[in-house]
């Protein structure tokens, strides 16, 4: 009985900390759409301000390192890029498997995946838009694989959201 009292006395505090309300979000699609739109608006505004400030007009700086040091550093950077891409791509796999095994995406925030998709798409697009020469694209390949590979994995999770949301609604209807 004492434990129940302590938990109920923490409810207002928990609501304040977590931002939870007693009423569930009546229209999560509207909330997600407005959130994504706000991120796009802030991103476009940030791009505009940095463009007007001349962020892309600075000259390239030559560090003056010998060619063999530059070549070694480039290889180390490329290796670390591939390691990073593998880690980045492997991060979604356990979630995809868990969703498939449980036939549920309960507990996942769709907005998180929409924001992830936005970030990875704009990052990958910026790499492709910067330069299109072969050497640059080969050096950018691990980051392109990580970015666009994660987009593919997020698309799998979106399909799981779609497939399993119908199951949850049917299950909730059966319990009523």
From TrEMBL:
Localization per Swiss-Prot or TrEMBL: Membrane
Membrane topology label: Multi-pass membrane protein
Pfam families, A to Z: PQ-loop
Name of the protein described by the UniProt record: Vacuolar membrane PQ loop repeat protein
CC terms in the record's Gene Ontology section: membrane
Alphabetic keyword roster: Membrane, Transmembrane, Transmembrane helix
Organism: Colletotrichum noveboracense
Annotated TM spans: 29-49, 108-130, 136-159
């Amino acid at each position: 009985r004492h434990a129940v009292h302590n938990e109920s006395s923490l409810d207002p505090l928990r609501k304040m900390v977590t931002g939870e309300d007693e009423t569930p979000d009546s229209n999560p699609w509207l909330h997600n759409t407005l959130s994504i739109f706000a991120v796009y608006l802030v991103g476009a505004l940030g791009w505009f301000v940095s463009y007007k400030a001349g962020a892309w007009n600075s000259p390239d700086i030559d560090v003056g390192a010998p060619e063999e040091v530059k070549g070694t550093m480039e290889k180390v950077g490329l290796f670390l890029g591939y390691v990073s891409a593998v880690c980045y791509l492997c991060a979604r796999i356990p979630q995809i498997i868990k969703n498939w095994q449980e036939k549920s995406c309960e507990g996942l925030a769709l907005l998180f995946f929409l924001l992830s998709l936005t970030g990875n798409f704009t990052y990958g697009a910026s790499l492709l838009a910067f330069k299109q020469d072969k050497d640059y694209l080969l050096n950018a390949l691990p980051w392109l694989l990580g970015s666009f590979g994660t987009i593919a994995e997020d698309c799998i999770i979106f399909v799981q959201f779609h497939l399993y949301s119908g199951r949850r609604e049917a299950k909730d209807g059966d319990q009523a």
